[in-house]
Amino acid sequence: MKDRLPPLNAIRAFEAVARHLSITLAADELNVTPGAVSRQIRSLEEFIEQPLFVRGHRQISLTPAGEQYFNAVARIIEELRSATRKLKRPPKRRQIKVRAYTTFAMQWLIPRLASFHQEHPKIEVLLTASLDPVDFHKDDLDAAIRLGAGDWPNCNCYVLSDNVLAPVCSPALLDTGPGLHGPADVAEYSMLHSLARPDDWAHWLEATGVIGQVDARAGMSYQSSSMAYAAAVGGQGIAMAQLFLVEKELREGTLVRPFEQSVDMGAYTYYLLTPKHRPESEDMATFRLWLLEQARQTRNAA
Length: 302
Description:
Strand content: 15-25%
Order of helices and strands: HHHEEHEHEEEEEHEHEHEEH
Largest sheet: 5 strands, mixed
CATH topology of the largest domain: D-Maltodextrin-Binding Protein, domain 2
CATH superfamily of the largest domain: Periplasmic binding protein-like II
Shape: elongated
CATH architecture of the largest domain: 3-Layer(aba) Sandwich
Number of domains: 3
Structural class: alpha/beta
Radius of gyration: 24 Å
């Protein structure tokens, strides 16, 4: 006699609660009451004959058994979703979905994508930009490019770049104002910031020993680094740049480095993330290998 399957509604409730670690959020997602979700979880725990969650005051967490079960359930549900999508909407083209930051996409990835499409014309890269955290269990993505220390859970993480910070400005700016003779002189100009990376100036000022002489938050702020770089090209001030993202501007002379001092952020850099809980498609593997080779060439050219 075959083993009975657990109640499928209870499985749906368990997956949602385990993903959110919240009965209330899971209930909202499933359009049922929190009480109904709690009853489904209890029925599943009775079926499995062991607890899947530790209930605390206003919070819950997975037991070791619950975490093991969630990893298996999430993988199966994702495979079911994928199989359903293929039956409902047969893809007209082979497509991989990648999320990046606006600046990374505009300054580095998009200028290189033409070569990928030339080499692999049957693979379409659907590129989106967002600052939101990536959740491969919930988001319809094959990969993401994120800035961090390389410690994202349940993800394969591949280093893409060196993250070296240094001030950049228009060469015309050097001919105006009191001049830039030492790091503390940046206070005499507009310091350009990215809201996405508000601490970059502080890192550089601390490394050059003038953090006590310059207000690291002074100046103008922009939504993205690409906006700050454009403002710097326009002579509006000095931007703190990730050097590999302004290599074209430095090479063409629209931006220059007024100081030799830089800060290497080490492991805190850009990574390609792919989900561990589902197998990598052949097309995604092709894109990953191409992207890592482009990244290697960029690092070697620096």
